[in-house]
Amino acid sequence: MFDWRWDFTFEILPRLLWATVNTLMAAGIGYAIAVVLGLVLALAQRTSFKPLTYAVRELVEFIRSTPLVLQIFFVFYVGPQFGIRLAPWTAGMIAIGLHYASYLSEVYRGGLESVPKGQWEASLALNLSPARTYFRIIIPQALPPSLAGMGNYLVGIFKDTPMLSVIGVAELMHTANAIGSESYRFLEPYTLVGVIFLAISLPTAALIRVFEAWVRRQLGMN
Amino acid sequence: MSQETLSDFPLELEGADAPMVRFRQVTKRYGNLTVLDSLDLDVAEGEMVTIIGPSGSGKTTVLRMLMTLETINEGVIYVDGKPLTHMPRNGGLVPADNRYLRKMRANIGMCFQHFNLFPHMTAIENCMEGPVHVLGLPKREARERSEELLEMVGMADKRDQHPSRLSGGQQQRVAIARALAMRPKVMLFDEVTSALDPEVIGEVTNVIRKLVGEHNLTMLMVTHQMGFAKDISDRVCFFFGGRIEEQGKPADLFGNPQRERTQQFLSAVKEAS
């Protein structure tokens, strides 16, 4: 029956909060990788070198069409067969970073395509270098329309960090599982995990909307 | 663009009477559609040439090719005595590479129908971007130059506004200042008043009038404003079907057009206005 024990709840709370730090770190590092690598993947698809464009396009499609948990297992367990031995954290960050990079590259692609052709033409008419055109003219304008999507995936990567528990990364889920198998009580740890995720996700989503409005203002675009 | 070396075009245009812009046998095709058909056109230094004609006659393409926004299929374009679309190699001309194009492009400035100001930069930042990051001017000098030009187009008081805060006519005037800040030898105006409300067209045409009066700029303009074209052009070219059907001094072309298509076009335009 419903048997919630508050004393047990408070006993395990500090441990779970510590694990939350790991979860936040995993989400933060993974997202940082994804934000940068995603831009590389998006720009690589816009080069005039066709083989690269196709290769990256296929890679992105492949990653987006297979489960994250499989990719995590693959990097961690299959890597050693090719002599690539990675710690759980490293393997996990590579897998989740690459996975979300491929999603973010699609967000960027949409953002980049939303910049009017006239902006490219004006940049060319002013003789701006291709790098300057991208980083000073096009990407700043592609950013605001990309922010909503980027925000969704920030919350997404955070909620996907429990998958790292399958290779032993000591994040929230992993810790809750450990508590459960030590004490044979699952109700409190899992409930707490849910509450902690909710308590972080909801304000983050709101903050992203504030941030989006702020960026538009900074760029003078509203 | 053909890859083989062109040998029957000169590597350079020399002499005092060499034009600022020369199109030689320039053909542009989109698939099966020939937009420009063996075009020959010279524009002298300091000359204001206006291109008129029905839509689809290739007039905007002329400007876009000069700005290197479009490649050409045949022929050669020269700017300031040097080939633009091609570069000299082994005694002949080969299609220009990006580096050569960047060097040549510095001679040309362009204003667009939809202004194309950078929306995340203020008016003066728009004007300073090229001088600072392409010409390598010190910021202070670029700012002074930009302020002068914004003053000239009557936009000095709006220098710190973003384009979204400006009317179409104001945006177009900033765009003219932005193009001039690069000190081009040739300025291109592509239907710069077509997207404007009627009551602000005058503020843009007045700026162009001023340029014609005070500067020795070579200018090519595509426009639907026949009255304006008549007022300020040294020469008007009527384009039809990718060719120059008729050209001449504005008084002659508007007052006494020789060709039937020119007459038809001009009377159709007159009826519409």
UniProtKB/TrEMBL annotation, chain A:
* CDD domains linked to this entry: TM_PBP2
Q: Name one GO cellular component term.
A: ATP-binding cassette (ABC) transporter complex
- Protein name (database record): Ectoine/hydroxyectoine ABC transporter permease subunit EhuD
Protein source organism: Stappia sediminis
Q: What does the sequence similarity comment in the record state about its family?
A: Belongs to the binding-protein-dependent transport system permease family. HisMQ subfamily.
Q: Which SUPFAM superfamilies match?
A: MetI-like
**Topology with regard to the membrane?**
Multi-pass membrane protein
Q: Which GO terms describe its biological process?
A: amino acid transport
- Entries under Pfam families matching the protein: BPD_transp_1
Q: Per the UniProt record, which residue ranges are transmembrane?
A: 21-42, 62-79, 190-211
TrEMBL record, chain B:
Compartment(s): Cell membrane
Arranged from A to Z, the UniProt key words for this protein are: Amino-acid transport, ATP-binding, Cell membrane, Membrane, Nucleotide-binding, Transport
State the Gene Ontology terms under molecular function: ABC-type amino acid transporter activity; ATP binding; ATP hydrolysis activity
Domain of life per record: Bacteria
Q: Where is the ABC transporter domain?
A: 21-266
Among Gene3D superfamilies, the record links this protein to:
P-loop containing nucleotide triphosphate hydrolases (3.40.50.300)
**How does the record say this protein sits in the membrane?**
Peripheral membrane protein
The membrane spanning regions, by residue number, are none
Its cellular-component GO annotations read: plasma membrane
Membership in a protein family: Belongs to the ABC transporter superfamily.
Protein name (database record): Ectoine/hydroxyectoine ABC transporter ATP-binding protein EhuA
Q: Which gene encodes it?
A: ehuA
